[in-house]
TrEMBL record:
Molecular functions per Gene Ontology: pyroglutamyl-peptidase activity
InterPro entries: Peptidase_C15, Peptidase_C15-like, Peptidase_C15-like_sf, PGPEP1_Cys_AS, PGPEP1_Glu_AS
Phylogenetic classification of the source organism: Archaea, Methanobacteriati, Thermoplasmatota, Thermoplasmata, Thermoplasmatales
Record: active site: E79, C142
Domain of life: Archaea
Catalytic reaction(s) noted: Release of an N-terminal pyroglutamyl group from a polypeptide, the second amino acid generally not being Pro
Localization (cell): Cytoplasm
EC top class named in words: hydrolase
Chain segments annotated as coiled-coil in the UniProt record: none
Record-given protein name: Pyroglutamyl-peptidase I
Keywords: Cytoplasm, Hydrolase, Protease, Thiol protease
Biological process annotations from GO: proteolysis
Biological role stated in the UniProt entry: Removes 5-oxoproline from various penultimate amino acid residues except L-proline.
Amino acid sequence: MVILLFGYEPFLEFSENPSMIIAQRLNGQKIKNHSIVSKILPVDYSKVEKEITESIKLFHPDLVVGLGVAPGRSKITPEKIAINYKYSEAADNSGSKPNGELIDQTQSNGIFSTLPVETIVHTLSDSGIPSSLSLSAGGYLCNYAMFIIVRESLKSGVRGGFIHMPLHDNFVAKHPDMNYPSMDIKMIQDAIELSIKTSLPA
């Protein structure tokens, strides 16, 4: 029984990515007798889809969760929907900058997470972890990854979705000029573990 967890590598001016840190910390851990397998996605539009689809085929997970950082947000934000659209004003790590094409011409304009996102928000909030539901995964690679994760999870009949987190406090402390909100890295990890527990089938 496997939980497949995706984080992202650093990008742009963010030389540390908490989604990568959390994914690496949880790799090999167990939650409800499910083993976590973590993969770090490249910030590269040309490679993300292949990495996700091949990992799902290889590990046959019971749950697939993508993680990403949303600089500027102060809460854990499970994403409700991914849009079938690739557009970014900022280039990815390979220099690519999509200009508005569809992710998948065979799919609808949007695809909903199959994680119990509303329950996750309530559970985290009740546990003292700031959380709110997000209705936009943005236009950068997190939306792209979420779309692929949910599409492929639906094909496999398992739950899949995406969760954004704030920047971690250690990084922001080292870059006060950025002036971003942050969260303690241990609280972020606790939030993701609790989100996974909430998402696993009973």
